[in-house]
Amino acid sequence: MSTIGIIGAGAIGTAFAKALSRQGIEVVIANSRGPQTLTALVEELGPTARAGTREEAAAQPIVLVAVNWSKLPTALAGLPDFGGRIVIDANNSIEVPSFQAVDLQGRPSSEVFAEWVPGARVVKAFNHLQAHLLESDPKAEGGQRVLFLSGDDAEAKAQVAVLIERLGFFGIDLGELSVGARLVQFPGGPLPVLNLVKFA
After folding, report:
1. How does strand 4-7 pair with strand 86-89?
2. Which residue has the higher pLDDT, 160 or 188?
3. Domain 4-198 class in CATH
4. 2, 11, 139, 164: which could join 131 in a potential S-S bond, CB 3.0 to 4.6 Å?
């Protein structure tokens, strides 16, 4: 599988990196403070992970973005057009640490996010589980922990679905962003923070 870029080394970005590293998938992770501040994390993740600049992470075939909502415009500003590459929107439209909802004038958060990643094929995923569940064994309860995904590009969703399966989760496609992203966005959607398990 291709190298995955991660922009954001907070709870979700780190949990996602741990899940990838557990499966031997190469990771380039970046934060706002520079690669030198991620040395300890990269050592913990192991040989398939490296710290990079924001630009290096954004240049990978699949890029996950998990940044506090108010910092997203700055985190993504000035990056080159994504040119059809896949960007996973793992963000929630809340202010931290107050956890107050951001007023998006009724728009789904992924629609707003897509404007900050021009040229990207956006897939909403990895935002609805708490970080400790995302990084832990997806078969811990005896089945497969469920991850939702949605997007407007079928091929992009298929690639993210393969990634979800590779990580050991059971992916459920919620359809287009206009529908699926609303179901999983936090706050407002009915599906966030539910720890659902698919049994065979």
Report:
1. unpaired
2. 160
3. alpha beta
4. 11
